[in-house]
């Protein structure tokens, strides 16, 4: 990924992503997709399943398994309209299914997931296939985790997004995989191992994924991540970038002396520097985990 130097004047698009987790014999693992190299958003990078909120997502709100007020409250955004808050949940679950084949729906059997996948490939919309199979989305399975807003000086994208990150355990009866369309590869990997691969230039990651993986690396199990998500409101992260005296791009996060928000939003370093085509903490790789 090349560094962006152009200010983006358009407002951020609302988006949602699901950080899918599982417990492996060696500890916590996260599911990552490699975006198609031709994609105009993070092409070739490894990301969590997700995408923009569609106008059609609001159509599923009356069929959700929780009241609008409950979803709105859990998202922790009092200034966001309740309908948009619910649409974030719908978009997160829709994108998880479209990009990884994992369907978060109450009582969904392996056969129903296979049928839903077939219907999707035939061109049926998400709401339509749920109705046809008699399934209701399981919003309780995904928990709000963080909210990332792309700054006007976006470092690795030419577009801005206001993305809600959710965390969720992958359903035991389902298998996550890439769709060979928007994503060309996929992997289950320990958060620290993914960051080591990024450090060694084996994979590409964007800053929100770097910081999220560093956060997840502090947990040994899915239960630990979900317990933290339930215990507090999602962190709001609005990076504030600048180019230093040597022309090096620096991303500052809440809690950094140069950031306008003094209170930390995330564990780990409060800034990343772009060097050798990699975003790195000033204290070296291990600073991600301090």
Describe the structure.
The protein is α+β, with helices and mostly antiparallel strands and 290 residues long. The protein contains seven helices and twelve strands. Strand 11 and strand 12 form a beta hairpin. The radius of gyration is 18 Å and the shape is globular. The two termini are 27 Å apart. 42% of the residues are buried. The mean pLDDT is 94.
Can I get a quick summary?
The protein is α+β, with helices and mostly antiparallel strands. It has helices at residues 68-75, 82-100, 110-121, 126-133, 191-199, 207-216, 222-231, and strands spanning 13-24, 27-35, 46-47, 50-52, 143-149, 161-169, 183-189, 235-237, 240-243, 249-252, 271-275, 278-281. It has a single domain, classed as Nucleoside Triphosphate Pyrophosphohydrolase (Alpha-Beta Complex).
Discrete helix count: 7
Mean pLDDT: 94
Number of strands: 12
Uncertain parts: none
- N-to-C SSE string, H for helix and E for strand: EEEEHHHHEEEHHHEEEEE
Q: The CATH topology is what?
A: Nucleoside Triphosphate Pyrophosphohydrolase
Report the helical percentage: 25-40%
Rg, Cα atoms, Å: 18 Å
The percent range for strand residues is 15-25%
User: What's the domain count?
Assistant: 1
> What is the CATH homology-level superfamily?
Nucleoside Triphosphate Pyrophosphohydrolase
Structural class: alpha+beta
Morphology call: globular
CATH class: Alpha Beta
Give the termini distance in whole angstroms.
27 Å
CATH architecture: Alpha-Beta Complex
Largest sheet: 8 strands, mixed
